[in-house]
Amino acid sequence: MKSKHPLTQFAAKHQSLLLVLIGLAVLIGAFVAATKSNMANIQSTLSNTTSYVKEQCNHYARIQLASETKSLMRMTESCKQIVHQLAESNTAADETALQRCAENAYVSGVLLLDPQGEILAQYHAEGQAPADLADYLASPALRDTVSYPEKRYAARFYCEDGSEVDLTAARRQDQAGLVVAYYHTTVEYLDSFSLSITSMLSGYDRENNGIIVVSNGSDIIASNDPTLIGSSTDDLEILRKIKAEGISDKLVQAKQGDGTFARYLGLMERGRDCYVYAFLPEQTVFRSTPRTMVYALVAYLILLAVTNAVRWRTAQVYHDEQIQAQIKHANNLREKNEQLIRAVDQADRANAAKTSFLSHMSHDIRTPLNGILGLLQIDAAHPDDTALLSANREKMRVAADHLLALINDILEMSQLESGEIVLAREPLDLETLTSDVFTIIEQRAAESGITMVRDERSDPMELPYVYGSPLHLRQILLNIYTNCIKYNRVGGRITTRFQCLGMKNQVVTYRWTISDTGIGMSEAFLEHIFDPFSQENVADRKGTGLGMTIVQNLVEKMHGTIEISSTEGVGSTFVITLPFAVSEQAVAAPPPPDPTASLRGLHLLLADDNELNAEIVRISLSDEGATLTIVSDGQEAVEAFRSHPAGTFDAILMDIMMPVMDGLTATKTIRAMDRPDAKTIPILAMTANAFEEDAQRCFAAGMNAHLPKPLQIDKVKQTILVQTKHDPCADPTPSQKEDVPNDR
């Protein structure tokens, strides 16, 4: 037999001793590693803390200076505004006039001085002037302002009670003298909103972040230990030793200096105007070292136990693994075969759906387009037949509406399939919404000879105020009702029953059951009614075949259900069940439009790169009395707005997709301008980007309304009137409007 190696024999005889030595080595290694790690961690922690506090102290001084500068600049602008207001006013500058000026400019007081500095009139919001104001009114620097039109005087002074006053003066424009305005900031406000180094340090935990000290030399001005504030850095040995080293970011060790054996570790950062110290007791720094050694010993013992357990189970586990590997291999082969079969089926269905899609779209798009082109040729051949031209225009409008509906359905279906549509969560009045839909459908049904009936068994709507997406809910109901009208008979009926299924966890569930007496559907077709472009009678197509697909996708997005039952020759029943979060807030109804209102007196800036679209808007709005200035891209819109005085334009009509600069960027640029009307002028998006996400992007850029193309001029007009709050009976002031040409 082959003899064992001497080292192997030694290990076998002295295994226990070897395990003990290894355990001791593990403990020593854990101690050394934990000590180094704790030292590195505490140095990093203290260094980061002192660096951050140092920067904050530096920022503190700059912020205080910047805050004072901004406040004085705002007061200078307010004083300038008061000067202009007094110059434009025809009334006497008495206390009442000064009060209006102070309120408009948001200041605490206004005084009028003659060239010699005597007070002519004054207004103080607090009833009396600040105590030290008279001293500053007598300042030669302030009085010199009367001799220099462009000079502005601004200063800040502090009152005895700790409050502060920002004072500014400017020369009057209407007559010789000075306008003095001031803003008084109370002590309570300063205490609530002023910055404080001490309050900043109070957020640091002494046990974890250490004791932090900020000094301006030897005096401690701030600390997260309140007992140290006001004392000297020479009172603590650790601070004296850190200060004696004089090196930033160097960890220093020192005793406490009170006769005990306690020791501290700390370091210092030197700021521009201060010194920042941070230190911790050694027992805090190394408190994790014993725990680390225990963890290491436990881990070593667990490792030994696991190693011994693994050794005797290795053979059995290996055998089990071999069996499992064979089973897994067989399962993988079977799954791959099934995946290949599914992939082939999916590819076949995708190709069939693509072919069907192209076929349907080619037919449905070409049909109304062919009608429009054909009618245009007929109009060109009969230019003098006004009756024929009028009839053809109506036919072309119907064909264009159908083509628009087809395009909208295709785009919405594409967004639903890609998951891009995000439902809104807005407070809505469900009773008003369903009533509006019923009113619209009732008129359409009457035109087709169909009667709309409300089932008497319907439940009362006791919780009408809910959260939901009103646009998409209205679309669901309109699509269902439209199908009931399309596939109904003259003299038929459409019955609606409304039910409340109860409320749970502030969510109420409603159900609409809509039944018609139409031609019905076969059982075979019901299985495919939600498939895109599916219609039972292809020879008699009455739509795009996307309506029910869109309805199903929207209902599922709302976490609801839709069920359909039908009998040929009898009719169909649609059951829509939707949950809504209950809203306690009532929804205010929008004011009805005024049909007699006009845009007379409004000056609008239109940005659109499409000349035909711009011409249509120009003619339509000019007929309503508006004056338009037209530009062809966003950059020109920005320049036109910038180059005209404030108040020239009443609103901006902005296309989105334009060359050079798009409408969103142009809107952001205008909103960022430093002029009075840049933030308030209404900017209306007029764009072919018609989805809810497009509208949200417009609002996020700073626009006030979103008008999708094709434009409905009545809606455009009403939106302009609402946004501009225009009164057509009041002519614009000539000084506020420029005579700008009504063209590009």
Q: Total helix count? A: 21
Shape: flat
Strand count, sense and closure of the main sheet? Answer: 7 strands, mixed
Gyration radius from CA atoms, angstroms? 41 Å
Q: Regions with pLDDT < 50 over 5+ consecutive residues?
A: 731-744
Description of the structure:
This protein is of the alpha+beta class and 744 residues long. The protein is 49% helix and 19% strand. Helix 19 (663-671) links the parallel strand 20 (651-654) and strand 21. Helix 12 packs across helix 16 and helix 14 packs antiparallel against helix 16. It is flat, with a radius of gyration of 41 Å.
Q: What's the topology here?
A:
Layout: H1 6-13, H2 15-88, H3 95-105, E1 109-113, E2 119-124, H4 133-137, H5 140-143, E3 152-158, E4 164-171, E5 178-185, H6 187-193, H7 197-201, H8 206-209, E6 211-215, E7 220-223, H9 237-245, E8 252-255, E9 263-270, E10 275-281, H10 282-285, H11 289-381, H12 386-418, E11 426-429, H13 430-447, E12 451-454, E13 465-468, H14 470-486, E14 493-504, E15 507-516, H15 523-526, H16 547-557, E16 561-567, E17 571-582, E18 603-607, H17 611-623, E19 627-631, H18 634-643, E20 651-654, H19 663-671, E21 683-687, H20 692-701, E22 705-708, H21 713-724
Parallel strand pairs: 12-14, 18-19, 18-20, 20-21, 21-22
Antiparallel strand pairs: 1-2, 1-5, 3-4, 4-5, 6-7, 6-10, 8-9, 9-10, 11-13, 13-17, 14-15, 15-17, 16-17
Helix pairs in contact: 2-3, 2-11, 11-12, 12-16, 13-14, 14-16, 18-19
